[in-house]
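Format is chain and fold; as here:
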Amino acid sequence: MRVFPWGFWLLCVASAPARGDSGSKARSCAEVRQLYGAKGFSLSGVPQAEISGEHLRICPQGYTCCTSEMEENFANKSRSEFEAMMKEAGRSVQATLTAQHRSFDSYFQDLLNKSEKALYDAFPSMYGELYTQNVKVFKDLYSELRRYYRSSNINLEEALNEFWTRLLERLFKLLNPQYHITDEYLDCMVKHAEQHRPFGEVPRDLKVKATRAFIAARSYAQGFLVGSDVVRKVSQVSLSHECTRAIMKLMYCPHCRGMSSVKPCNNYCLNVVKGCLANQADLSTEWKYLMDSLIGVADRIDGPYNVDTVIGTIHMRIAEAISNLQENKDSITSKVFQGCGNPKISTKGSSSEDKKRRGKVTLEAKSSAQALEMLVLDAKGNLTALKTYWITLPSSLCSKKVMASSASDDKCWNGMTKGSYLPEVMGDGLANQINNPEVEVDITKPDMTIRQQIMQLKIMTNRLGNANIGNDVDFQDTSDDMSGSGSGDSCPDDVCGKRLSKSPSTRQPETHAIPKQSGHGVHGASSRSLPSASLLLLLLWVAAMAPQHLWR
């Protein structure tokens, strides 16, 4: 009986929370009150000095300056602040990609506009009615080229073929006004055009070069927009409940413990953020592929595909083609008559307009190759810097936003108190969070919004890959495409089904691994587990009652 009071006293002393340097006097909560008010919350009910922390659900339950309401408000605040950090980081990447798109798009559109303007300025004096009566044919060509570049569902080769066909029909009639040429006769002439090559090698050469240049240009421009859109959508993904608790513990629990000046340990911050952004880190592989593919196409645009020369000289190639037709008019007409027969003589008479206006082409092209070279150089630098964005995001947020301590600091906030942080830093990505000590992550349930964006990156990379070798690609909206839960994008087979469980008593039983069956479930499964559960409860009761008998 004499042992009991002493044992009880020792137990109370051992379990009493330490108050630090203040001894029995409670520390002031002035710093926390100031912070709490600065965050826009009312100071009503906020303690003036430390109180017992048994009511806390996230922060350590020692002496504290936070009530339950304050803890909840701080948790909500930490959630909104962390999501704002994510969006701010994302906006920086979006701004970079959007700026690159805007620069290239402006350059390319200007290139096309200058070519069209040069054609409109020079052709009237060069070709007279050969041009003035066919203005719409030229306007339609440039209109189709712009529509293709803007990702409309247009077959570029067919558009170019249609232009040359229409131009040949119009010019053949104007060059032979003494004949009455019917639509049926023109159809026959067009069938033999490939054989006679009235425009020389220009149509074939321009089709090959322009197609490659336009495919590369529009894929390149689209790649920047897709990358920016992926970042925007991923930045809007909400934090999980587990992540919100971890962020609160990281950012505001030290304030509740009266340690406002203590910075979070760097490795502790990394584990929290890596756990929260586990799904985002899985974007890294496909994101890097996209950046590499854009760099590859950029080299093509400024190299073999020679966009500046090809697009900037379209009007000159058309003029060259028309000159070929004028210079070889007689032989081409003779060949057409041989193949399609002699058309009837027209009663309108002939015109010498074309004879007065025909002449050697003297058009000049103003090169903007240096501007393109600078654009590509700048883009490649930015794309290279963005390759590691998703896997460096946690360290960037910890160092620049959370303001974590240096890696060597052993007097930092480790989630419980001021000291060193011992757990190792987790790897990147969802599968590597199975043993994350700070954030409970279900690696079997990848975020579907992010999986969709991974698929968007794959699709765009494939388009760029095709563009890199000159193959046309179909630009359709695939925003609703999903990667599928059965693909390799979810998680590796050796880790699927595993889940971290730090608090078994508060977790719901896992049922996703149990196969679905009709009736009342898997027969025998629950009945076999009942004896073990009952035995466990009995042992726990005996263990709880044993000390009471010992004291007696």
Summary: Residues 79-346+380-432 form one domain. Confidence is low (pLDDT under 50) at residues 1-24, 352-361, 476-552. The chain has 22 helices and four strands. The longest strand covers residues 179-180.
